[in-house]
Amino acid sequence: MRAKKNTYAVITGATSGIGAEFARQLAGQGYNLIISGRRKEVIEKVARDIRETYKTEVTVVIADFLKQPDITEFIRVVKKTGNIEFLINNAGFGHAEEFFEDTYPHQKTMIDVHVNATTEITHAVVPELRKNGKGFIINVSSMAPMLSSPSSPLYSATKGYINIFSEALFMLLKPDHIKVQALCPGFTRTDFHEKIGMTREQCKNVGIIRWMRPEKVVRISLKSIGKNKVIIVPGFLNKLILAFISILKSLPGGIYYSISSRIYESVTNKILVENKE
Questions:
Q1: Which of 25, 29, 60, 30 is nearest to 45 (CA)?
Q2: 155 assigned to active site
Q3: Which of the residues 155, 161, 256, 257 is marked catalytic?
Q4: 207-224: per-residue pLDDT in tens?
Q5: N or C: less crowded end of the chain, CB within 10 Å?
Q6: Which residues are paired to 88 by β-bridges?
Q7: Is pLDDT at 269 greater than 60 in this prediction?
Q8: Contacts (Cβ under 8 Å, ≥6 apart) of 272
Q9: 3-class secondary-structure state, position 85
Q10: SS3 breakdown of the chain: % helix, strand, coil, rounded to 5?
């Protein structure tokens, strides 16, 4: 797809990884950008590189979505700009701390960003998409809610919310010609894992674990956005894993939970132990 002249894409969490790659690829399709992030120097460099490479307009909003005034200001900038066609809700993070070994206020920040900020920004931007008579929303989720992780129940739960929210929006906004997608990548080479304590050495292929690059994840997402499918799991192996999980979930509850717990423990050990050898 190619953007019409002076059409904008809004991308949250565009400082690095998947968010920054969405910014690059949409700029390459001719979109002007409104991007947000917390790390000023890093996101400003992303913006400069995109302006120089694609000769497009990039507006940077430094925002921490744990702060309501920052969300309000971001929404103000978006509405003031107008002519919005794309919304990418990518802002998010995980915690290294186990749920009960951490303070609740710290754990709750995932609810504040993944659920509250995503929902509020979507509620504010959809009327702008409706003005154009069409639009695209991509909510960046995860494969985590497919096989819930006992180490981070809130991460799985909040990403699960994003999936269900996206499915409901898909049906609700179809008459408005607004396409909605929940992008559910598996292991992807971004700084997300470094922030939760994993080293670069641990972020490598082991057994069935295959890491994807953000460029490929985003390319698959954008190629799929026009199709009548909400939940997008990029990567052939990830699709096989998802099919296996579906089979597991058809088993009686006790068996399913026992097997999924062992799978989680096995995968964790492969990443944290075998990669040290």
A1: 60
A2: yes
A3: 155
A4: 455 668 999 999 999 999
A5: C
A6: 11, 138
A7: no
A8: 202
A9: strand
A10: 55, 15, 30
Contact call for residues 19 and 88 (beta carbons, < 8 A): yes
**What's the rounded Cα separation, in Å, for the pair 150 and 254?**
15
Q: How far, in Å, CA of 100 to CA of 20, rounded? A: 33
With CA atoms as reference, report the closest residue to 81 among 122, 116, 33, 117. Answer: 33
**DSSP state letter for 245:** H
Q: Which residue has the tokens 């295959």?
A: 210
| Alpha carbon distance 203, 205 (integer Å) | 7
Closest CA to 135 of 226, 250, 214: 226
Place of tokens 């929303």: 137
Counting Cα atoms < 13 Å in the Cβ hemisphere of 251 gives 12
Rg (CA), the chain: 19
Q: How far from 199 is each of 34, 138, 195, 212, CA to CA, in Å?
A: 31, 29, 9, 16
Helical segments of 210-251, H only: 214-224, 236-249
Structure tokens at 270: 């492969």
Question: What pLDDT, in 10s, does the model give residues 186-215?
Answer: 876 655 445 444 445 544 545 455 668 999
C-alpha closest to that of 87 among 183, 186, 17, 215: 183
Domains located in the chain, CATH noted: 8-276 (3.40.50.720)
> What does the block give as tokens for 26?
């949409």
Q: Which residues contact 189 (CB under 8 A, 6 or more apart)?
A: 203, 211, 212, 213, 214
Strands 8-11 and 84-89: parallel
Burial class (CB in 10 A: 0-12, 13-18, 19+), 238: buried
Question: What's the order of all strands across the beta sheet hosting 32-37?
Answer: 58-62, 32-37, 8-11, 84-89, 135-140, 178-183, 231-232
The pTM assigned to this predicted structure is 0.86
218 contact partners, CB below 8 Å, separation of at least 6: 18, 21, 22, 25
